Amino acid sequence: MRIGLTGSIAAGKSTVSKRLAALGAHVLDADIVAREIVEPGTQSLFLLTEAFGPEILTPGGALNRGALAARVFGDADALKTLNAITHPLVVARMEELSMKWAAEHPKDVVVWDMALLIECGAWERMDAIWLVTANEKTRLARIMARDGCTREHALARMASQMPQEEKLRYASVVISNDGDETALYQQVDACYAAACMAVETPV
To answer: How far apart are CA 72 and CA 52, in angstroms?
Structure first.
């Protein structure tokens, strides 16, 4: 079974992902894969350099993430180009890793931990989509505390994403993270148990 795990910024997706891994799920982290596909010598890094110029590289030829972030910040077209290059390669690599794992562990639950699961179209590859939610006030406070940023900056980051309400349309499982960690874990544990049961007793 393949589960797509996603959520808006500061909803608590990473906490849920770690809990799922502790419960025995095989978790694939899109952020880790995204870093792997832009290592020196990769097709992705070559395409990024062609699109944005050699100034996005370090003197040693590795990707300078700060320079790339500065290049696309506030530039919708540049961000679109970046996503068009990296998203398909991330999805392809995660698909490859998923297929390999499933071939060796057919009854395991595989989780794609992916912030942009819906936006990049990867949701269509999932058996289930789990959305971690939290209300706007809670997420705003978490961003400000975590990143030490202003309220305005936190709101801008939230506004740059697909609205949580829209993501709800895609979700087959909704995990609410407005309470404490114990309440969150209770939901995750119950949902994971149900997923494992579905794998063991398919319809």
So the answer is: 9
